[in-house]
Design a protein that fits this description.
The protein has 67 residues and is mainly alpha-helical. The chain has helices at residues 23-37, 41-59; strands at residues 13-16, 19-22.
Length: 67
Amino acid sequence: MTEEPEDAAEVTWAVVGRDVMCGVCVALRRQRGLAIQEYDRSREVDLRVLTRRHMREQHGQELPFPW
């Protein structure tokens, strides 16, 4: 499975559309977008799992399915 990105520490907080995201959220979203563009469904699913885990552990928020 893909690991959480290390370069995320460079960005503390960012505003993406209406959302305020931490650096890890931004990096995971960027990587997921690339996986979608490349039609890499396995990597996309891995990144969704990592995002859900990150949101639960770091932000105390559970993302609803079918996110």
